[in-house]
Amino acid sequence: MPPESPDESDWFREHLQPHDSMLRAWLRSRFPSGVDLDDVMQEAYLKVMKAHAQKEVKAPKAFLFATARNLALNSVRHAKVRGETTALPIEDCEFIDGAEGVHEAVARNQELEILTKAIQSLPDRCRQIFTLRKVYGMSQRDIARKLNISARTVNAQISIGVNKCADFVGRYCETGKL
Question: Does the UniProt entry include the keyword Zinc (predicted)?
Fold first, then answer.
């Protein structure tokens, strides 16, 4: 469903569309092939646009990813009820919280946006190593092998990344500005 007005269309192009390929890859890495990614993404875009029409969405990328994740989890849940089998890593299920309210979801999404900005602020090599370790869960040895660097360098860059992210979040907490 296309956005209704030029302002909504611009907002969609600026805040959601740039994340399309990253969202698709992220969903593909987390959910079984039985989940229709196109449907999940379309519905996620629709829900985020509806939320934006009602009030400002402060962290659109985080809100989009959380919405897509929840929709994909619902798809897995419904498939299970229908008797279909899907393989979903148990660690992905701990995000399910049916009692979570809008305020908690928005707060969590804003925290995710702050963390994303913190990671984006890292130097290129440090960000690459940090992301491979913390987001994709690769071992330090595998990262070293993949990037053709020493395990000691990987360890040092992860430490630097953690410290810089902590500093970034601390500054945000003090100033309230990204």
Answer: no
Judged by DSSP in three states, 165 sits in: helix
Q: Which two tokens stand for residue 96?
A: 């399910």
Q: What is the pLDDT of residues 94-136, one digit of tens each?
A: 444 444 556 676 777 777 888 888 888 999 999 999 988 888 8
Token pair 């959380």 is at which residue?
A: 66
d(CA 70, CA 98): 10
Q: What distance in Å separates the CA atoms of residue 157 and residue 108, rounded to the nearest whole number?
A: 27
Which two three-digit tokens encode residue 169? 């979040």
Residue 54 contacts residue 108 (beta carbons within 8 Å): no
The residues, any chain, with a CB within 8 Å of residue 68's CB and separated by 6 or more, are 23, 27, 40, 41, 44
What is the pLDDT, as a whole number, of residue 42? 92
- Would you state the pLDDT for residue 90? 43
Q: Taking the complete model, does pTM exceed 0.70, yes or no?
A: no
Instruction: Tell me which CATH code domain 123-178 carries.
Output: 1.10.10
The domain locations on the chain are 1-120, 123-178
